From TrEMBL:
Protein name: Glucanase
Signal peptide limits: 1-30
Keyword Signal: yes
Family assignment from sequence similarity: Belongs to the glycosyl hydrolase family 6.
Catalytic residues (positions): D162
This protein's UniProt keywords: Carbohydrate metabolism, Cellulose degradation, Disulfide bond, Glycosidase, Hydrolase, Polysaccharide degradation, Signal
Documented EC number(s): 3.2.1.-
Alphabetical list of Pfam families matching this protein: Glyco_hydro_6 (PF01341)
Source species, domain of life: Bacteria
Length: 334
């Protein structure tokens, strides 16, 4: 990998757009130098753009079905764009899986985006994506191997989507246990993957209020993360997300004295939300070159066409299953 600092312009040339934080943030939402996480490295500047996974669900399907009338559109509009890869129990040996993926990106001088999704009691209150490591001890081993496999190579990692959204079905002891695992994960990445930017997930604008989310983020240790993520696997517009992200930062600033950058998942927000979260019809891939207001980056974190579970237009499917017809319709917004 060519470890040469590059300009932001080079990074924005990829299909995922890097958007710097607004220089003129108000004092209510700007982090003070003493409260900022210790800057370790700039994974954006260490690479020449974002990594496009040649083995994503859309890419594999398009290559296997060249005669399908939908294949070209899916290949050109989805598979050819950088997006995150999710890692969980299905990944097998997590060290080998992460090491192979990050190694391929490193060899191409590109920046990989990874999502760690294996916390015990995952999606506990939703149920569509349940699972995760069997015990906190098993999770600690898993996330340690995850971070170690990245090592000194540059990466972006979103840690445990959904984990801080809905606490309604958890006891205080379970919340404390979950926060301990998330804090531990951040420590592992800080110690074992110094060129990785980590993000805790902060849900979406319609889930819980900004002040409550700020409380959840602080409890989980976001002070030690690079930032937080918004709208993963959801459909809210970029504008709605930046308004929410700025409100979360306002609450972090007023209650805890710091703020954090945030990224927005734009993979499925081209038509906005119709109020449904589980495989709604009529949605559209997002315009990744759209200015994100106060967002640090607009990223495809969910793969367009991947099912949210056995619901909506994905009836009969499992969460994470690639559905070519859904992907095809999302290209055109119907």
């Amino acid at each position: 990998m060519r470890r040469v600092l590059r300009t932001l312009a080079a990074a924005t040339a990829s299909a995922c757009l890097l958007l710097p934080l607004a220089a003129a943030q108000s004092s209510a939402t700007a982090a003070t130098p003493s409260s900022a996480a210790t800057p370790l490295a700039d994974p954006i500047g260490m690479t020449s753009g974002f990594y496009t996974d040649p083995y994503s669900g859309p890419a594999v399907w398009a290559a296997a079905n060249p005669g399908d009338g939908r294949a070209a559109a899916i290949r050109d509009n989805i598979a050819s764009r950088p997006m995150a890869r999710w890692f969980g129990a299905w990944s097998g040996d997590i060290g080998a899986a992460v090491g192979s993926y990050v190694g391929a990106a490193d060899a191409a001088d590109k920046l990989p985006v990874l999502i760690a999704y294996n916390i015990p009691g995952r999606d506990a209150c939703g149920g569509h994506s349940g699972g995760g490591a069997g015990t906190p001890a098993a999770y600690r081993s898993w996330i340690s191997a995850f971070a170690s496999a990245i090592g000194t190579r540059p990466a972006l990692v979103v840690i445990e989507p959904d984990s801080l959204g809905d606490f309604s079905c958890l006891s205080q002891a379970q919340i404390n246990e979950r926060n301990g695992m998330l804090r531990g994960a951040l420590t592992e990445f800080r110690n074992r993957a110094p060129n990785t930017w980590t993000y805790l997930d902060a849900g979406n604008p319609a889930w819980i209020g900004a002040s409550t989310m700020a409380q959840h983020l602080d409890g989980a240790g976001v002070r030690e993360a690079h930032g937080f993520s918004l709208n993963i696997s959801n459909y809210f517009t970029t504008g709605e997300n930046t308004a929410y992200g700025n409100a979360v930062n306002g609450a972090l600033a007023s209650s805890y004295g710091y703020t954090r950058p945030y990224v927005v998942d734009t993979s499925r927000n081209g038509n906005g939300s119709n109020g449904q979260w589980c495989n709604p019809g009529g949605r559209r891939i997002g315009a990744v070159a759209q200015q994100g207001g106060g967002a640090e980056m607009l990223l495809w974190l969910k793969t367009p066409g991947e099912s949210d579970g056995n619901c909506g237009v994905g009836g009969g499917s499992a969460a994470g299953q690639f559905l070519p017809e859904v992907a095809y319709k999302m290209i055109f917004g119907y």
